[in-house]
Structures are given as structure tokens and as C-alpha cells.
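INPUT
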Amino acid sequence: MSEEQKTQQDPGHSEFEREPVPRRSLLGFKSFIGMYAGEHCAGTELMIGPLFVAAGVSAFDVVVGLIVGNALAVMSWVFLCAPIATRVRLTLYYQLEKICGRNLVTLYNLANGVMFCFLAGAMITVSATAVGVFFKFPMPELNDMYPNSAGWILAVLAVGALIAVVAAYGYQTVAKFANIASPWMVLVFLAFGFVGLRQFISVTGAEISSPAELWSLAKTTIWKGGDPLPGQTKFTFWHVMFFAWFCNMAMHVGMSDLSVFRFAKKSWYGIASGTGMYVGHFMAWISASILYAFQLHVDPSNTKVLPGPLAYEACGIAGLICVIIAGWTTANPTIYRAGLAFQAIMPKTSRFKVTLVTGLIATIAAMFPAIAMKLLDFVALYGMLLMPMGAVIFVDFWLIRKFGLQSNYAELSGKTFNWAAGLAWFLTLGFCLWIIFQYGQDKKFFVSLPGWFVAAGLYIVISLFYQKKIRPSVAA
Amino acid sequence: MRTTLQIISWLSLVALVVPSILYLAGSMELDRIKAYMMAATVVWFVSASLWMWKDTGPTVEEEETVI
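OUTPUT
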């Protein structure tokens, strides 16, 4: 079997999975700029932008909230994630295994895999909306929980099956295709914004000859604020800011991107994430939200958030292709990664079968439009679920030795389940859920901030008891 | 050959976005924008695939899933 064949069969394999990345394999700043710019322009951006409008954002809330929130996200990469990544140069999973033990990492994998399945489901939903443009079957409404037509189910099934089979067979081919598509996709998103803006100018008859007049149009016509659409949570500046900061929380605060920045020569390369934030999570969200705001402006009763028809109206077939590719190229690695996470739990099962079954689960999830239509809520919960482990890694690396405790305790003690880390995770989630149920559902967008400090504190306090009890045997 | 393909593909990206800028400026009709964008899309995927396919190997981003 050639090396190429081996790689194709085991495309998730990367070098240095269980050793620090050596100096010769480090990458330059440019690699990270390109990667973040392309990767954060995904199918889900076409849902998030419109959902902001459905949430009743005002122009100031959305523009300034995104600028500030994305800056905080970049700072989280620069000051929390990249400094540890460039010092230990290990993958997230290996770093976690050293701290938490293999069994706790398996549990983390399971949680990650389940969330990946739902996320991939939302991406399949996005792609399936493009199919509806051609076949004219009834598509989901904004507040639909369940599939509303046989045509929708068949479209999701066809798109999901295709994505799952491709993920199982040819992950690398799609990854290559995604790299080629990404500069094109970024510019199509930009075109969405230009076209949507012009449509607003034409319909309202506004004269735009200065930034002040543009801002006035934005305030009074595009992002008017006020009440959200029925069934949606009202978004203020704070909601937008925290959403932009925490929507990739699993990656920066949650430390998933240790696996990425272990290849960086310097920790300040974390600033490269700014390209992804301001291209994908600013420009793309703004563009997609303009298209949806225009749809509402023309027909206030048409509240459907359907990226396919939105993109088709704006940019024709090219826009439709963008929706399909954006959903497909991001669902593909998501299904693949979910498959890897599940396979870690059932190592004897073939990766092909696991990926196919994972794709099937994601496809079934995609049939239920509630996941995509409630994407803002889902993304907030996704970050919250994985955030405590980021706090554990941060404390374990920077602080725990100052308390006379051991870092990488599972590795040193031979434990397969570090209860200090496990309890810090579970109790923090309990705390966050209590806040949400006690003080209101919209607190899910904010609760991860105090949750991080709770997780950090719990890990230290529980470790004081847990490690103390076993320390003599470790020393021996 | 590679340089020529690169020039063609970068020009196709220019052709992709410029019509929408002209539309924003009120100098072009929407139907023409859609046709130009479709043509630019075809040129980009054909020309870029010819020189980018070999260049794009597994990279660091395969480790993660993003939103």
C-alpha cells in the first residue's frame, strides 16, 4: 500500500499526534491567515446573519457588537490558546489525556462527537435549502420544529447521504476542493452584501452619498431593532457581542485550536484568527443579514430563513452554488471529525462504517429544522459544553504548580479518569444550566464567562483534595 | 503555464466581484450580474483547480471543525 493510499484510508491521521511538533515542521504566519479566512466562511454564516435580524438587532448592536465581540475572540486565541499551544506543541486530545486520563478524554470525545453531529446537521440543512429552489417543495418556516414536507425530507436525505458517503470515502478530496473554493466563496459572500445593499437603496429610493447617509439607511431600514420575530430571543448589543466572542468558544477558550497553533512559530500568530473573524463572522454575517432584512422589507410575512432562495435571488446560480459548497465543505469535515470522536470510543469498528452512521445521524438531525433555526442557541450551548475543559487546561498549565500541585496529573499518576477535572467539568455545566433555568433562557449567551472562572476555581480546589490524597504514592 | 493559470484565476475573482460593485453603484442590471458571476465561477474553478489542486495538501485546519 502506497503512502498516498494509507493517507486516503486514514485521512485523519496527522503527524506528531503524540509528540511535540518539532522546529522543522513549524509554519509561518501566512499559513494561519489563509486557513482562518477560509475556514470561518462556512454554510452556517448564511443562517447566523439572518437570525440576528430575526432577533431584532439594531444597526449599532450588530455592527459594533460584532466588531467588539470578534476582537475579544481574537484576543482569546492570542492570550489563552496560542501561548500554551506554542509552548507544549501538542494536540488538544493528547494534552487533555495527560491532564485528564484516557477515559475522561473518551467522554469529552463523545460530547464533542454528538455536538459535531448536530452542527453537521445544520450545515446539511443549509445545503438542502438550495435544492428547494429547483424542486419547489414546501420548505421549513422560522419556527418549525419538525420536517414539514416529504420533499424536504427527500432533499435532506439526498444531500446528507451524499455528504456522508463522500466523507467516508474521500475526505481529503473534499478538503482540497474546500481550499480551492474558499477565496471564491468569500467574494460571493461579499457580493451578497453589495447586491442586498443596492436592492435596499433601489426599493427605498434612498440617496447615499456619504457614510452618514449609509448609516442612516442601515439604522432605519436594514437593522431597525425593536421586537424580535415571534419565537425568537431579543438580541441587544450584549447578546451580539457575547455571541461573536463565544461562538467559537470551543476553539479558543476551549483550547481545540491547540492542535492548530502547535504548528505556529510564535504565539502572536493567534492574531491570524482575525481574518476569520472579520471575514466570516463580520462581513459574511452582515452580508447574509442584509439579504434576509431585504426579504422581510419586501414581504414582512415571509420570515423563512432559507439560504438557498436568499442567495439565488441575489446572485443567481453562482449564489446557489455558494450555498451548496458552503454547507457541503463544512459538513464534510464535521461528519468526519464526529466519526473520529465516536471511533475513539469504539476502536474496533471500521472508520468507514462509523463515518457513514455518523453521517446518517447528522442527516436525520438535519431533517428537523429546529436545529438550524435555533442555531444561535445551539452554538452558545456548544461553546458552553466544552469551555470547562479549556479552563482546566489553562489552570493546569499556568497556575496549578503555584498551589503545590502537579500538572499533567493523569500522566504522572497513571489514572485514566482525573476526577478533579471531571468534577470541574460536570459541576460547571450544572452551574451554567442552573443559571439558565433560574434567570432565563437568554443567559445561555453569557453564562460561559462566569462558568470559565467557576471551572478554573473548582479544578484547583478539587485538585487540592484529590491530588493530596494520592501524592505520596505518586512521589514514591 | 502555471503563471498564466494563476493570472486567469485571479482575474476571474476580480470578474466575480466587480459586477456586484457596479450594481451597487447603479451601473449594471441584476440579471447581467448573475450571468457574469456564473461565468467567473466556472473560470475560477477550472483554472484554480489546475494549479491549486497539487498545492493543497493536508493542513492544520483538518484538526478542527469551525462555525
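end of record. The two ends of chain A are 47 Å apart (CA to CA).
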